[in-house]
Amino acid sequence: MAFFGLFGKKEKKEVLDKGLEKTKSSMLGKIALAVAGKSQVDEEVLDELEAALVSSDVGVKTTVDIIHRLEERVKRDKFLTSADLRRLLCEEMTSLLAEGGNGAEGFEIPESHKPYVIMVVGVNGVGKTTTIGKLAYQFKQAGKKVYLGAADTFRAAAVEQICIWGERVGVPVVKQQQGSDPASVAFDTLASAKANGADVVIIDTAGRLHNKVGLMNELTKIKNVMKKQVATAPDEVLLILDGSTGQNAYVQAEQFIKATEVTALAVTKLDGTAKGGAVIGISHELGVPVRYIGLGEGMRDLQPFDSQAFVESLFADANL
Q: 193 and 113 in contact (C-beta within 8 Å)?
Protein backbone atom coordinates (compact mmCIF):
# COMPACT_ATOMS: atom_id res chain seq x y z
CA MET A 1 0.00 0.00 0.00
CA ALA A 2 1.49 3.33 -1.06
CA PHE A 3 2.23 5.69 1.77
CA PHE A 4 -0.57 8.26 2.16
CA GLY A 5 -2.44 6.46 -0.61
CA LEU A 6 -5.58 6.59 1.51
CA PHE A 7 -5.96 10.35 1.00
CA GLY A 8 -7.79 11.36 -2.17
CA LYS A 9 -6.19 13.52 -4.84
CA LYS A 10 -8.93 16.11 -4.53
CA GLU A 11 -8.36 16.49 -0.79
CA LYS A 12 -4.59 16.76 -1.22
CA LYS A 13 -4.99 19.35 -3.98
CA GLU A 14 -7.30 21.48 -1.83
CA VAL A 15 -4.86 21.41 1.09
CA LEU A 16 -1.95 22.22 -1.24
CA ASP A 17 -3.73 25.11 -2.96
CA LYS A 18 -4.82 26.63 0.35
CA GLY A 19 -1.39 26.16 1.93
CA LEU A 20 0.42 27.91 -0.93
CA GLU A 21 -1.96 30.87 -1.22
CA LYS A 22 0.47 33.43 0.24
CA THR A 23 3.44 32.23 -1.81
CA LYS A 24 1.37 32.10 -4.97
CA SER A 25 -0.03 35.60 -4.48
CA SER A 26 3.38 37.11 -3.81
CA MET A 27 5.31 35.26 -6.51
CA LEU A 28 2.74 35.71 -9.28
CA GLY A 29 2.35 39.37 -8.41
CA LYS A 30 6.09 39.94 -8.90
CA ILE A 31 6.19 37.91 -12.10
CA ALA A 32 3.15 39.74 -13.47
CA LEU A 33 4.93 43.05 -12.93
CA ALA A 34 7.97 41.70 -14.77
CA VAL A 35 5.97 40.97 -17.93
CA ALA A 36 3.38 43.75 -17.71
CA GLY A 37 2.81 45.37 -21.09
CA LYS A 38 5.18 43.02 -22.90
CA SER A 39 4.09 41.20 -26.03
CA GLN A 40 7.10 38.91 -26.20
CA VAL A 41 9.80 37.41 -23.99
CA ASP A 42 13.00 39.36 -24.56
CA GLU A 43 16.17 40.14 -22.61
CA GLU A 44 14.45 42.87 -20.61
CA VAL A 45 11.63 40.51 -19.57
CA LEU A 46 14.12 37.86 -18.51
CA ASP A 47 16.06 40.39 -16.43
CA GLU A 48 12.86 41.47 -14.69
CA LEU A 49 11.84 37.84 -14.22
CA GLU A 50 15.22 37.04 -12.68
CA ALA A 51 14.73 39.79 -10.09
CA ALA A 52 11.19 38.58 -9.39
CA LEU A 53 12.30 35.00 -8.73
CA VAL A 54 15.21 36.01 -6.50
CA SER A 55 12.94 38.24 -4.42
CA SER A 56 10.52 35.30 -4.15
CA ASP A 57 13.21 33.28 -2.32
CA VAL A 58 13.77 30.84 -5.17
CA GLY A 59 17.50 31.38 -4.66
CA VAL A 60 20.13 33.07 -6.83
CA LYS A 61 21.78 29.92 -8.21
CA THR A 62 18.46 28.26 -9.01
CA THR A 63 17.08 31.44 -10.54
CA VAL A 64 20.11 31.80 -12.80
CA ASP A 65 19.66 28.19 -13.91
CA ILE A 66 15.98 28.78 -14.69
CA ILE A 67 16.72 31.98 -16.64
CA HIS A 68 19.47 30.23 -18.59
CA ARG A 69 17.04 27.49 -19.60
CA LEU A 70 14.46 30.08 -20.65
CA GLU A 71 17.09 31.90 -22.71
CA GLU A 72 17.83 28.67 -24.54
CA ARG A 73 14.14 28.21 -25.25
CA VAL A 74 13.86 31.76 -26.57
CA LYS A 75 16.85 31.22 -28.88
CA ARG A 76 15.48 27.92 -30.15
CA ASP A 77 11.88 29.03 -30.64
CA LYS A 78 12.89 32.49 -31.89
CA PHE A 79 9.67 34.12 -30.66
CA LEU A 80 7.89 33.55 -27.37
CA THR A 81 5.06 35.63 -26.02
CA SER A 82 4.61 36.49 -22.37
CA ALA A 83 1.57 34.21 -22.51
CA ASP A 84 3.99 31.29 -22.98
CA LEU A 85 5.87 32.21 -19.81
CA ARG A 86 3.60 30.40 -17.38
CA ARG A 87 3.96 27.11 -19.27
CA LEU A 88 7.72 27.48 -19.62
CA LEU A 89 8.25 28.35 -15.97
CA CYS A 90 6.17 25.36 -14.90
CA GLU A 91 8.14 23.06 -17.18
CA GLU A 92 11.57 24.29 -16.12
CA MET A 93 10.83 24.39 -12.37
CA THR A 94 9.34 20.89 -12.49
CA SER A 95 12.37 19.69 -14.46
CA LEU A 96 14.77 21.15 -11.89
CA LEU A 97 12.95 19.46 -9.03
CA ALA A 98 12.83 16.14 -10.87
CA GLU A 99 16.60 16.27 -11.36
CA GLY A 100 16.96 16.49 -7.57
CA GLY A 101 15.02 13.27 -7.04
CA ASN A 102 11.71 14.99 -6.30
CA GLY A 103 8.40 14.12 -7.85
CA ALA A 104 7.43 10.81 -6.23
CA GLU A 105 4.04 10.98 -4.53
CA GLY A 106 4.84 9.10 -1.35
CA PHE A 107 6.71 5.83 -1.05
CA GLU A 108 6.25 2.30 0.16
CA ILE A 109 7.86 0.78 3.23
CA PRO A 110 9.68 -2.39 2.17
CA GLU A 111 7.71 -5.35 3.49
CA SER A 112 10.88 -7.42 3.79
CA HIS A 113 12.69 -4.79 5.83
CA LYS A 114 11.49 -4.01 9.35
CA PRO A 115 11.74 -1.73 11.10
CA TYR A 116 12.18 1.17 8.71
CA VAL A 117 14.12 3.74 10.74
CA ILE A 118 13.77 7.50 10.26
CA MET A 119 16.15 9.76 12.17
CA VAL A 120 14.79 13.31 12.40
CA VAL A 121 17.14 16.30 12.72
CA GLY A 122 16.73 20.08 12.74
CA VAL A 123 17.07 23.14 14.94
CA ASN A 124 14.55 24.12 17.60
CA GLY A 125 11.43 25.88 16.43
CA VAL A 126 11.18 24.49 12.90
CA GLY A 127 8.25 22.18 13.69
CA LYS A 128 10.30 19.04 14.22
CA THR A 129 8.18 17.40 16.94
CA THR A 130 4.93 18.34 15.21
CA THR A 131 6.18 16.81 11.97
CA ILE A 132 7.13 13.62 13.80
CA GLY A 133 3.63 13.42 15.27
CA LYS A 134 1.99 13.93 11.88
CA LEU A 135 4.26 11.33 10.28
CA ALA A 136 3.40 8.83 13.00
CA TYR A 137 -0.31 9.50 12.51
CA GLN A 138 -0.21 9.04 8.77
CA PHE A 139 1.96 5.92 8.93
CA LYS A 140 -0.48 4.47 11.44
CA GLN A 141 -3.44 5.37 9.23
CA ALA A 142 -1.67 3.48 6.46
CA GLY A 143 -1.71 0.36 8.67
CA LYS A 144 1.85 0.53 9.97
CA LYS A 145 2.97 -0.23 13.51
CA VAL A 146 4.95 2.82 14.66
CA TYR A 147 7.39 3.46 17.52
CA LEU A 148 8.76 6.85 18.54
CA GLY A 149 12.09 7.45 20.25
CA ALA A 150 12.45 10.55 22.47
CA ALA A 151 16.20 11.02 21.96
CA ASP A 152 16.06 14.78 22.50
CA THR A 153 17.00 14.43 26.17
CA PHE A 154 18.47 17.91 26.61
CA ARG A 155 15.09 19.57 27.11
CA ALA A 156 12.44 18.15 29.41
CA ALA A 157 9.80 19.86 27.27
CA ALA A 158 10.97 17.96 24.19
CA VAL A 159 10.36 14.57 25.81
CA GLU A 160 7.01 15.77 27.12
CA GLN A 161 5.96 17.05 23.71
CA ILE A 162 6.73 13.84 21.87
CA CYS A 163 4.95 11.85 24.58
CA ILE A 164 1.87 14.01 24.09
CA TRP A 165 1.99 13.30 20.37
CA GLY A 166 2.42 9.60 21.07
CA GLU A 167 -0.73 9.60 23.20
CA ARG A 168 -2.63 11.67 20.65
CA VAL A 169 -1.73 9.38 17.79
CA GLY A 170 -1.84 6.18 19.82
CA VAL A 171 1.71 4.96 19.31
CA PRO A 172 4.31 3.97 21.96
CA VAL A 173 7.14 6.33 22.89
CA VAL A 174 10.45 5.06 24.31
CA LYS A 175 12.06 7.58 26.65
CA GLN A 176 14.56 8.00 29.48
CA GLN A 177 15.22 10.69 32.05
CA GLN A 178 16.24 14.18 30.98
CA GLY A 179 19.98 14.34 30.42
CA SER A 180 20.27 10.68 29.46
CA ASP A 181 22.51 9.67 26.58
CA PRO A 182 20.49 10.25 23.36
CA ALA A 183 22.23 7.32 21.67
CA SER A 184 21.08 5.07 24.50
CA VAL A 185 17.47 6.14 23.94
CA ALA A 186 17.78 5.38 20.23
CA PHE A 187 19.29 1.97 21.01
CA ASP A 188 16.46 1.11 23.43
CA THR A 189 13.84 2.31 20.96
CA LEU A 190 15.09 0.02 18.22
CA ALA A 191 15.39 -2.90 20.64
CA SER A 192 11.78 -2.45 21.74
CA ALA A 193 10.56 -1.91 18.19
CA LYS A 194 12.25 -5.08 16.97
CA ALA A 195 10.88 -7.12 19.87
CA ASN A 196 7.35 -5.94 19.11
CA GLY A 197 7.41 -6.20 15.33
CA ALA A 198 7.25 -2.49 14.53
CA ASP A 199 7.17 -1.43 10.89
CA VAL A 200 8.43 2.13 11.35
CA VAL A 201 10.62 3.80 13.98
CA ILE A 202 10.96 7.59 14.15
CA ILE A 203 13.83 8.90 16.29
CA ASP A 204 13.69 12.49 17.51
CA THR A 205 17.01 14.27 18.15
CA ALA A 206 17.89 17.48 19.95
CA GLY A 207 17.25 20.76 18.13
CA ARG A 208 20.90 21.66 17.91
CA LEU A 209 22.13 24.94 16.55
CA HIS A 210 23.58 24.26 13.13
CA ASN A 211 26.84 26.09 13.93
CA LYS A 212 27.70 24.02 17.03
CA VAL A 213 30.03 21.45 15.51
CA GLY A 214 30.63 19.57 18.76
CA LEU A 215 26.92 19.05 19.29
CA MET A 216 26.42 17.99 15.69
CA ASN A 217 28.91 15.19 16.23
CA GLU A 218 26.37 13.67 18.61
CA LEU A 219 24.25 12.84 15.56
CA THR A 220 27.00 10.60 14.24
CA LYS A 221 27.17 8.81 17.58
CA ILE A 222 23.41 8.18 17.55
CA LYS A 223 23.64 6.73 14.05
CA ASN A 224 26.52 4.43 14.96
CA VAL A 225 24.79 3.12 18.08
CA MET A 226 21.56 2.43 16.19
CA LYS A 227 23.46 0.22 13.76
CA LYS A 228 24.25 -2.12 16.64
CA GLN A 229 20.55 -2.94 16.76
CA VAL A 230 19.63 -2.55 13.09
CA ALA A 231 22.54 -2.71 10.67
CA THR A 232 20.83 -0.57 8.03
CA ALA A 233 19.70 2.16 10.44
CA PRO A 234 18.89 4.87 9.80
CA ASP A 235 17.14 4.23 6.51
CA GLU A 236 16.39 7.91 6.24
CA VAL A 237 17.83 11.05 7.84
CA LEU A 238 15.06 13.60 7.57
CA LEU A 239 16.00 17.26 8.02
CA ILE A 240 13.14 19.55 9.06
CA LEU A 241 13.31 23.13 7.75
CA ASP A 242 11.08 26.10 8.49
CA GLY A 243 9.73 27.33 5.16
CA SER A 244 8.89 30.75 6.60
CA THR A 245 12.62 31.55 6.89
CA GLY A 246 13.04 31.39 3.11
CA GLN A 247 16.63 31.17 1.92
CA ASN A 248 17.91 31.30 5.51
CA ALA A 249 16.81 27.68 5.73
CA TYR A 250 19.43 26.94 3.08
CA VAL A 251 22.23 27.82 5.52
CA GLN A 252 20.85 25.43 8.13
CA ALA A 253 20.43 22.68 5.56
CA GLU A 254 23.97 23.13 4.25
CA GLN A 255 25.45 22.80 7.73
CA PHE A 256 23.39 19.74 8.64
CA ILE A 257 24.37 18.05 5.39
CA LYS A 258 28.02 18.62 6.26
CA ALA A 259 27.50 17.13 9.72
CA THR A 260 25.40 14.11 8.83
CA GLU A 261 24.17 12.28 5.75
CA VAL A 262 20.82 13.97 5.22
CA THR A 263 18.77 11.95 2.74
CA ALA A 264 15.55 13.94 2.60
CA LEU A 265 13.94 17.23 3.62
CA ALA A 266 10.63 18.24 5.14
CA VAL A 267 9.71 21.90 4.74
CA THR A 268 7.16 23.12 7.27
CA LYS A 269 4.94 26.18 7.85
CA LEU A 270 4.41 26.92 4.16
CA ASP A 271 0.82 27.97 4.83
CA GLY A 272 1.93 30.97 6.88
CA THR A 273 4.53 32.42 4.54
CA ALA A 274 5.04 33.97 1.12
CA LYS A 275 8.50 32.37 0.91
CA GLY A 276 7.46 28.94 -0.37
CA GLY A 277 9.59 29.45 -3.46
CA ALA A 278 12.55 28.50 -1.29
CA VAL A 279 11.45 24.87 -1.58
CA ILE A 280 12.57 24.91 -5.22
CA GLY A 281 15.94 26.49 -4.58
CA ILE A 282 16.88 24.53 -1.48
CA SER A 283 16.24 21.16 -3.09
CA HIS A 284 17.91 22.08 -6.37
CA GLU A 285 21.02 23.66 -4.88
CA LEU A 286 21.62 21.04 -2.20
CA GLY A 287 20.75 18.03 -4.32
CA VAL A 288 18.54 16.57 -1.57
CA PRO A 289 14.90 15.71 -2.33
CA VAL A 290 12.02 17.27 -0.44
CA ARG A 291 10.01 14.38 0.98
CA TYR A 292 7.23 16.25 2.80
CA ILE A 293 5.76 19.73 3.05
CA GLY A 294 3.77 21.13 5.97
CA LEU A 295 0.71 23.10 4.90
CA GLY A 296 -1.21 23.64 8.14
CA GLU A 297 -1.85 22.49 11.70
CA GLY A 298 -4.06 19.49 10.90
CA MET A 299 -2.85 15.88 10.97
CA ARG A 300 -3.42 15.59 7.23
CA ASP A 301 -1.76 18.89 6.40
CA LEU A 302 1.61 17.17 6.08
CA GLN A 303 1.86 15.93 2.51
CA PRO A 304 4.32 13.89 0.48
CA PHE A 305 5.98 16.39 -1.83
CA ASP A 306 4.76 16.07 -5.41
CA SER A 307 6.93 18.49 -7.40
CA GLN A 308 4.63 18.65 -10.41
CA ALA A 309 1.55 19.31 -8.27
CA PHE A 310 3.50 21.90 -6.26
CA VAL A 311 4.55 23.90 -9.31
CA GLU A 312 1.14 23.59 -10.96
CA SER A 313 -0.51 24.88 -7.80
CA LEU A 314 1.80 27.91 -7.75
CA PHE A 315 0.86 28.85 -11.30
CA ALA A 316 -2.78 27.73 -11.39
CA ASP A 317 -5.07 30.38 -12.87
CA ALA A 318 -2.10 32.66 -13.44
CA ASN A 319 -2.91 35.50 -15.81
CA LEU A 320 0.54 36.46 -17.03
A: no
